[in-house]
Amino acid sequence: MSDTQKDILEWIYCIIIALVIALVFRYFVGTPTVVKQRSMFPTLKENERLILNRTFRITKHYPTKGDIITFEAPDKDSNTGEVDQSNPVAKYSDKKMNLFQKFVYSGLEITKTSYIKRLIAEPGDHVEIKDSKVYINGELLVEDYLQPDVKTESTAFNDFIVPEGYVFAVGDNREKSTDCRRFGCIPYDKIEGIVVFRFWPLNMFGRIK
Predict the structure, then answer these.
(1) Per-residue pLDDT tens for 106-153?
(2) Which of 44, 63, 103, 150 has a CA positioned 20 to 30 A from the CA of residue 117?
(3) pLDDT band at residue 76, thresholds of 50, 70 and 90?
(4) What are phi and psi of 32, to 5 degrees?
């Protein structure tokens, strides 16, 4: 093998190793994302750039109340029929994929649809949506991050207990948000990241509260 061929192979090895490290970092540590909808307005606005923390996939220290999370979107028509308040969980179809499709979907996340919402209830919490407000375990949820006069309504899940292994998340812009009020609670293993930092636009640079 010539020196030129050896150099080419070394470069190929370096590129492959760099790609693997980047993918591992993206999946288990953190990654950037872009806000594409208005469901979290005014906290987050369209086209803002954020950093997601994904270390919980290693530490198992999952997000808690008040955290803004991203998660895999459930089936759109998961609960268009009769709502079962005793089983308030989002439905995910068993997608049959080959190895390459799984890599593109879960690794590169190119074909995946994700939502960004605020986690407001954890396993065992009793959630009630009534009188245009949210009550957790019988107490009114104080939501200083909402715009004045925001009303929280739900024609689907509005009186239930969050099952073990699930969380309940909604958008800050309640009237413009498709969230757990419609499709049910999200399992922990469908959570993709915790929003921790905004790096664009520059005048909004800093941690997300």
Answers:
(1) 887 888 899 999 999 999 999 999 999 999 999 999 999 999 889 999
(2) 103
(3) low
(4) -80, 160
Burial class from Cβ neighbours inside 10 Å (0-12, 13-18, 19+) for residue 124 reads: exposed
User: How does pLDDT run across 155-195, given as a tens digit for each residue?
Assistant: 899 999 999 999 999 999 999 999 999 999 999 999 999 99
Is the domain covering 3-207 a CATH 1.10.443.10 domain? no
Closest CA to 115 of 176, 25, 64, 27: 176
Which parts of 73-207 are beta strand (E)? 114-121, 126-130, 133-136, 139-140, 159-161, 166-170, 186-187, 191-200, 206-207
Beta bridge partners of residue 104, listed in sequence order:
none
Query: Could you tell me which residues are beta bridge partners of residue 127?
Result: 136, 160
61/58 Cα distance (integer angstroms): 8
Tokens linked to 193: 């990241």
Query: pLDDT by residue (tens digit) across 85-96?
Result: 989 999 998 778
Amino acid at residue number 67: D
